[in-house]
Amino acid sequence: MISIQNEDISPEEIINALKAPEAGAVVSFLGVVRRDPDVASGLEVEAYEEMALERLREIAKAAKKRFEILDIAIVHRIGTLALGDNITFIASSAAHRSDAFAATEWALEEVKRTVPLWKKEI
Amino acid sequence: MRIHLKLFATFREVVGERDIVMEVGAGSTVEDIVTELLGKYPRLKAHRDSMIYSVNKEYADPGATLSDGDEVGILPPVTGG
Q: Which of A9, A70, B11, B35 has the greatest number of beta carbons closer than 10 A?
């Protein structure tokens, strides 16, 4: 599942969709709006949507090539998000935990580094 | 030729527009477009060094030559994730 969306994220649903008989591990990351001196009420998240979606697909494809994983899901929300709201969810399934951990972390760093998304404190 | 500019985040706020259509000479580059944009919106000049560019939704260098109808993104440093 690769998605840029306003709606909230359902981590459990995505994890269940990634589970497979061969998968001994599903490792996930959930990014959340946290309290911060600059954050009064939340975040405004903006995307260059079509380009961002394409970049997420490319990251997922590259993760599958780079790591021994079965599947990966990357979801990023846009719009106005409040303190405690979910922002980003990345999960990888693999036979072994080390591959799943590595892929999820790598994908997150790639999202932060290369996807045209912007978070503004509000 | 006609170029469709897309502005985001801080740049969109400075300009006050998300989409701008520009008529430019054939053979123009991204750099040429940005120079013209900064001429119209001087307050963007302070951000020039941090600008990232895309052409038709692919990251591009300032020297990239444009074609009629191209979509050029003027992007601030990304802060997703």
A: B11
